[in-house]
Structure formats: structure tokens, C-alpha cells
């Protein structure tokens, strides 16, 4: 995965750290855990989506297992969450921003990697979304919560927008660092607007409250 | 997967649609979801079992990612469930029938594909069952319910019967469309009898109620 | 996987049986299940960790699907748990010992297999832990419990110690049956001390009780 342009690669590492930190904090809020549980869930959040993608596109062993900084950043983020749990719990907005960076970068990188491994455009876009939301979904399932992505504020939708923009750009030979950053920025802005204005995807008509 | 005989292929697509619809309805009954959650869970129900099978037999990327009608039918079924949720909730029997068709066809196709990829007969039969029940199991785990397959009416057993019949027929060079349909029909009948007479697999002796 | 030395192979089969038995009993304690559910969860507990490892190191189809005694022992263990549920529930200590044997052997074999498939030392150690605890984690997620490994007594840590000893021995060309048994014994002893003295991994500072 370090064949990405350096800036994108740096953002990918930032996203890994942010997901490790945020994943661990979310897990700590949901249930009692010891340090093993916190680190495990931080790693699953940060690395799970990319591992699922690599399994499905047959890029095995997963990139995560071949390049140690991913592990180090995911574990580091989780350990910081473990130690500074109390204090970080109050810092909602910076954590949401970091998480949105991870979401945006993972969607773009995941979609472009899937295309590079020969997937079609629609499946590649889906794999971008899986990269972005897969890890958090596993974490929520393990701590016994209905995954956030299934029920609240815009989360999968901005990832899907970024992934679709990415595969379209690749289709029309326009993909490069500016497009990748642009697609990630669109995802980031939609996500932050969703958080700011508590936007939700539509609910079923007549659903009981 | 479109190397199957046309009738079986049509049933496979029917099963995909039925699982997408039914999976989304089941998820809606279990928890609050937005449209992203409903479509995600419909897709996971319809496509999850086949994806797990393709990962385990090393048929990657999974067939689902290579042939768009699977996606379209799974998403279409889930969207119909989302819009017509209230009204479809009353139509229990047609949905159970559609679901039983999916179960039957997935078990037969899953087992035969596993044999085609070189698996032994017993593992191939197991992979047939995994194809049939894997998607629903993931859905139930994500919405926080003990998977139906683990605790109620005959569900995995008819799938196992169909998968075993399939691998035996392949072993004795008797596999073809008639046998495939016959094996699926046996599964379908056992499943519907199970629903009709509320048959359950045996419970542990002395288990507390 | 039957390229392991005979004694290690025998322990691997013992561990598979123990995990099948223990996994089924744990599942029965957590929720109501029929015989299909008990056997399914016993199999997932016994075989799930190894299957995840084989998927991630691209050793497909998984060893479990190629060599029937694994299936037979996992299913046999689960069926014994199903029939003797009441009676076995009282035998806490022998079951804990059997489970610790499985944990120890799976960690060592998992790590050594990952190295044999070309993984680096740190990822291989992680895959040893995944082999040892993956199956139980899936089982707990399916029956709606926060996985034991995430929150109680030393469980992942002894597996990690054994896996690290294994990869270090391989690194320094000292791996063989004595080292494998030694690493497994270290894991076993730490695990049993953890059970005996109710040791837990550290909790987050200031966490609410």
C-alpha cells in the first residue's frame, strides 16, 4: 500500500492512528474491557476494513501484515486511548475530525486498490466503503452494539460518494493525488456536515419510533 | 457462477432477491435502521454466504463481485423491503416460501461449486450449508440477535440434506439439472414442513426452559 | 498441518476436541440452542481461529477442510457437550485444563504455520494469537456476549507469549519439538496461574466499575 503518493500515504497512516484511537475509545464507552480488549478492538477498528478488502480482492497476506507501521500506529492509538480514556472522552470534536479523516482516506485508497487488483468499478466502490466502515462494524458487533454505520448520521454515504468519485476518476484516466485528495475532502465535508446538523439517512416509512 | 444450467441460475437469482428482501425485513423487525442499514443488511444476507464460501475455496474475488445482477437483485430486494416494510410484514407465508427457495438453491449451488474447486465431499457439503445460512447468520450477529439457524425450526438441516444429496450425486456422476432441482426440492419440502408443524432440532437433555 | 511432529499433531487434535467440547458448553450456558446450534458453535470455536489464519496467510482451502479428523473431533466434542451438558457443567477444572491445552498448542502451531507461509515475525506471532482465540471470539459474538478474551483473566496474553517464543525460536533456528512443547507449556502455566489466582490484564485507569 506504500505505492500510494506520499501525501496520501501519510493520510492513510493518520487515518490508521485515528481509527485505532477512536475505535478503542468507542469500545471503552460500550463495555468493560482490559488492556488486551482495548488494544484488540483498536486494532480491529483500524485494520479490519483493509483486511476484509485484501481478503476479498485476493491481495494476501493483507497489506497490514506486511508493513509494520500500520500495526504500530493502530496499537499506539489504542494504548493512548487506554491511558488517557477519561481525559480524551471530553474531546469529542477533535476525535470526530480524526475519525472523518480516516473514513475519507480509507474510502479513496480502498476503492483505488480494488481497481488496481482488477475489480470492476461498482465492486471497487463497494470495497472502498467496506475498507472505510468494516473495522468499526466488527468492533460494534463484538461489543454487542448495533453498528453505528447501520443506524445513525451520515457515515457510509460520504464514504460511498468518495469511493464512486475515485473509481470514476480512474475510469476516465484522471486519477492522481489532486483527485484523491478532492474525493477524500468531499467525503470529509459531507461527514462533518452530517455530524454538525445531525443529518440521518432516510428511515423506513411508518416505522415505529 | 453463470456456468450453472439456466434454470438453476434463474433460481439462484430468485434466491438472491428473496434473501435480500427477507434479510432486510428481518433486520427491520429486530432494530431501528436507516436506509443504509437496511440495504447493507439485505446485501449481507443475500450475498454473505456465497462470499464466505468463495473466500474459503479460494475463488477470489467472489463471484458476487464479478457479476452485477447479484448486487442489483440483493439491493433491489432490500429497497423493496425498506419501502413496503409495513405492508410486507403481514405477508408471512410468501416470504417464507421465497426464503426457502433461496435456502434450497444456495445449498445445492454452494456444494457443487465447492466440489468444482477441488474440495472433498464432506467439506463441500458443509460449504453448501455455509452458503445457505452464512448470510443470515452475519445479519443476526450484527443486529444483536442469536442467529435463527442456531436455535429454531429446521433450517440448517434441510440445507445439509440438499448439500449431501448434491455431493453424492456428483460422486456417482449423476449430477445434472434434474438432480440439482430434486435436491433443492427435498430441502424446500423439509423446510416448509418444519415451518408448518413447528418442528425443531433436538434440544439438550435436561436443559432449563 | 499434519507435517507437524507427531506429538504436536496429537496435541493439536486434543486441542481441537477440547475446544469443540468447551465451546459447545460455553454456548449452552449463554443461550438456548438446539443440536444444530451446539454443533455449529462447537465447530466454530474449535476450527474458526485456524480458518481465519489460513485465510489471512492464503493457505486456502483451510487445512481444516482438507483433513477430516479436525471436523470429526470438533463435532464429536460438541455432541458430547450436547448429551452430557448437565453432568459436564460441574467439571469446571478438567475443562479449563483441556481448554488451556488447546489455547497453548494453537498459539504455537498457528505462529509456526504463519512463518512457514512467509509472514514476518510480528505478524506471525499475531496470527498465532488469532489461531488460539479467534474461534472463541466468533462464538461469543454469535451468542451475544462480549468475547471473554476482551475482558477477563489472562487469555490472549499467554497465547501471545507462546507465539512470540515460537517465532523467536524459528528466527534463531532453534525451533523443534522441544521448543514447541516448551512454548506451549509456558502458555499453559501462565493461563492456569491466571485462572487460579484470578489474574486480569490491567484495566483502564479511572474506569467506572
From TrEMBL, chains A, B, C:
Cellular component GO terms held in the UniProt record: plasma membrane
Main localization (coarse): membrane
Residue ranges of the TM segments: 6-28, 35-53, 65-84, 91-109, 115-133, 154-170, 176-194
Entry's localization field: Cell membrane
Top-rank lineage group of the source organism: Bacteria
Any one Pfam family match given in the protein's UniProt record, by short name: Gly_transporter
InterPro entries found in the cross-reference section: Gly_transporter
Membrane topology, record value: Multi-pass membrane protein
Record key words, sorted: Cell membrane, Membrane, Transmembrane, Transmembrane helix
Keyword Ion transport: no
Limits of the Glycine transporter domain: 10-85, 97-169
Family listed: Belongs to the UPF0126 family.
Protein name: Predicted membrane protein
Taxonomic source organism: Mycolicibacterium chitae
